[in-house]
Every structure is written in C-alpha cells, then in structure tokens.
Amino acid sequence: MDLTSILEYQNIDKALYNLEQTLENGVWKNMLPKLNQTAKNSQNKSSQLEGQAAAVLKEMEELKKTIDATKKHGKDILKSDPETMSSEQIEQALLKKDRVTSNLIALDKRLTRLAENINQILAEFNSTVKIYNDAKLQYQQIKAKQDRELAEAQPKINELKAKLDLLSKKINPKTLEFYKARRADKIFPVFVELIGNSCGRCRMELSASALSKLKSEQTLICENCRRVIYYIK
Ligand SMILES: [Zn+2]
After folding, report:
1. Can you tell me the distance from the alpha carbon of 51 to that of 138, in angstroms, rounded to the nearest whole number?
2. CA–CA dist 5, 169 (Å, integer)
3. Phi and psi of 221, rounded to 5°?
4. Which segments of the chain does DSSP mark as H helices, in order?
5. Which among 219, 200, 197, 199 has a CA at the least distance from the CA of 208?
6. Distance 8 CA to ligand 1 centre (A)
7. How far is the CA of 166 from the centre of ligand 1 (A)?
8. Tens digits of residue pLDDT in 126-151
9. Which of 43, 44, 99, 209 has the smallest CB count inside 10 Å?
C-alpha cells in the first residue's frame, strides 16, 4: 500500500479539519441554540400572560357590572318616600342600605386588587417582551459574526479542497472511501504512526502478533480507537 499520497492528503486535510472545527466551535455553538430557546420561552410566556390578562379583564368587567347593579339597588332603597313608611319599614330600609354600602366597599376592594393584578401582569409582560427582543438581537449579532467568519474562511476552504481533489486522484479509491467515512465520523486523524509498540493516537500497546502483522502489512486497524496504525520501515 502506497502510504505517501494518503498521508500527504491527510496532512492537507488536517488544516481543513482544524478550520472546520474552529468555525463549528465558535461562540455561536452554544449561544445560538441557547438564545433561540430563550426567545421561544419568552414567546410562550408572553402568550400565557396575555391569557391571564384577558381572564382578569373579564373578571373586572363582571365585577363592574355587579358594582353598578349594587349601586342601583342602593338608590332604589332610598327612592321610597319615608313619609309613607312605617318606622319599622324605615329601619328595614336603613339596614338594607348599610348592607349595600358594606357590599360596595368589599366589591371596590376586589376591583382594586384586580387592577393591581393587571398591572403586575403588564409589567411582567413588558419585561418578557424585553427578554425576547434582547435575545433576538443578540442572536442576529452572533449569527452575523458566524456568517462573516464563514465567508472569510471560504477562500482558504476552497483552496484546501482543490488541493485535496487533485491529490485524491493518486489515491486508491477504496482507501480514500475508508478515509472519508472515518473523517465524516470525526475520527481524525485517520492514519496514525506506530510509536514504539503502541498506537500513535490512543497509545494502546499492540500484541506481538498484531505488531508482526502490522510490520508485514504496513497498516493495521487499532482495536481500541479504530484508527489506522501505519508502519514505515
Ligand atoms: Zn488507537
């Protein structure tokens, strides 16, 4: 097996691999999904708050109707002419009036609480919208940075790929296919040198029989890290 070409290929590919890794593992790797999640969460939360606000507003409307009806009832009690009423009837009317008044006080308190509730929901809604907008803006900025770096690296990527293309013609197709499959699984480098009696990557020591097989066949797949150990005399 002619190792020269595939090793040369791997050497150029190393630059490409490193470049790809740098681009892939930039600040965006964790940030973009995180910001996306933040935006989604705040969107869910704001629609939840909208639902809450609608329910409270509806309750307030009902309450206002009750208050109006109670007020009207209070006025009706006072409409009767005291001249035509017995003292007992007057006493009854005054008692009713008192009940209506305390009822109204309680209803007003409830209305105030609901208004406070609405204000809280509104404040929370506003801060949720702010979180959403901030996350969206930050997402756009980081995405733009990623796009810029990708665009900047593109000429270098193209250059390396052209070199690899040219070199690939000298390599046995099966060897290249094997190499590319490993590379796609991010097993890199694919070919590693024998160091001492061990795999140059994972340092697993080879048995005597594996070692003699490697020395006669020039390559051997490492049982531990699945890379190709090569031996050059
Ligand atoms: Zn190994």
Report:
1. 28
2. 9
3. -85, 130
4. 3-24, 28-79, 87-168, 173-184, 208-217
5. 197
6. 20
7. 29
8. 999 999 999 999 999 999 999 999 99
9. 209
Residue 181 identity (one-letter amino acid): A
Cβ distance 228 to 175 under 8 Å? Answer: no
Cα of 183 from ligand 1 centre, angstroms? 15
Q: Which amino acid is at 171?
A: I
User: Which fold does the domain 3-170 belong to in CATH?
Assistant: Helix Hairpins (1.10.287)
pTM above 0.90, yes or no: no
Q: Per-domain residue ranges for the chain?
A: 3-170, 190-230
What is the distance in A from the centroid of ligand 1 to the CA of 4? 21
Q: How far apart are the first and last CA of the chain?
A: 13
In the prediction, which pLDDT does 31 show? 95
Determine the distance separating the centroid of ligand 1 and the alpha carbon of 11, expressed in angstroms: 19
Distance (angstroms) between ligand 1 centre and the Cα of 221 equals 8
Cα 178 to middle of ligand 1, angstroms? 16
* Coil vs helix vs strand at 25: coil
Instruction: Tell me how far the alpha carbon of residue 171 lies from the centroid of ligand 1, in angstroms.
Output: 23
Assigned token pair, 152: 């900047």
